[in-house]
Prior knowledge:
Blueprint: H1 2-24, E1 32-36, E2 38-54, E3 57-61, E4 66-71, E5 78-79, E6 84-88, H2 91-126, H3 132-165, E7 167-169, E8 174-179, E9 186-187, E10 195-200, E11 205-213, E12 225-230, E13 233-252, E14 255-265, E15 276-293, H4 294-298, E16 308-309, H5 311-314, E17 339-345, E18 354-363, E19 367-372, E20 379-384, H6 388-393
Parallel strand pairs: 16-18
Antiparallel strand pairs: 1-20, 2-11, 2-15, 3-10, 4-6, 4-9, 5-8, 6-7, 8-10, 11-14, 12-13, 12-15, 13-14, 15-19, 17-18, 18-19
Helix pairs in contact: 2-3
Amino acid sequence: MKRFAFIAAVVVLLLAVIFGLRQYGSGGADSYQTAAVIRGPITQAVSATGTLNPVVNVQVGSQVSGNIQKLFVDFNSPVKEGEVVAQIDPVLFQANVAQAEGELANAKAGLELAQLNAGRIESLVTKQSSAQADLDQARASLHQAEANVQIKQGALDKVRADLENSTIRSPIDGVVISRSVDVGQTVAASLQAPILFTIANDLANMQIDANVAEADIGSVAIDQKVDFTVDAFPNQTFRGQVTQVRNAPINVQNVVSYDTVIGVKNPEMKLKPGMTANVSIVAAHQDDVLKVSNAALRFRPADEKASTVKPAARGSGGGRPRGGGQEKGSGGEPGEKRVTRTVYVLEKDDGEPKAVQIKVGISDGVFTEVTEGLQEGDRVVTAALTTDKAKAQTANPFSGGGRRRGF
């Protein structure tokens, strides 16, 4: 029995060696992972984050100090321009108005007396019954009485304005999105106007203030289409449009970005102020172009023995039909710059990759547009599947070091 077991083990070992030689006996040539050049749409986008805000956002404050007597609106209340939204206790202001009216009446009485005195002394001077100095004094008193009336009138106008301002009105049509006071609370307007309400003009039309990095701002322009999502609706994509690219830089810890304003329609009122938007600005889009995997653009063979093939040898039928470019051999649109890159094409299963120079266009981060140098169906190398260490292990089929040639 031991002899038969020994023979069986030897047979199994020989079969394993034969299988290993068949699997890895293709020699020391590397095997490569490839990807086909395909045709289809491609979109280059700029990613950013931003905050949803109303287009018009007004903070309603108080010009006078006092206790909040009444509140006529609350959160989410719709309001019209001029509508009363709050009332500050007007008792003190009414008392100030009454006092100012009394002081004005007193000043007017003094003016009348000064006018009578001035007329009487003027007639006496005409009859030479009084000195000229008395007339001058009477006229000065008359002018002082006139000025006093103006002062009292101004004081009355001021307290009347304070009384009017104790009634807080909405400056715009909109909806209340924030209320900062309660009934009985005292507001003090001595240093700055306290904020009572925040009113948004129209939540059906909103905007995103997105911070776009300085490296990407050159690709952003007005009227570009925008796709964005919010955490509240992760499975829904919303649409917008760039309306403004502001020139004021935003510097946070030496990272410079620019505020890009994106107009958004919100007819269903799903979007709310303050939501964080994950923005994708469509910088460029092509519908039917050749595209190659970005991994092929990064691949370089370890031995650097691949032969170089000129683009003309492979033809220029890679890209979409274009007009004559300004750059020689660019194949792009007038004034459009095309970048030259090198990829490695595997023409045969057991052949070596050949370097091909291509011209590329826009990229979506996974694929890159090919405008010249490749044809649809070409297989470009994206990775090498064996290394020097792996080739050394192919002699031992039980080491697990070898891998089959794959595409």
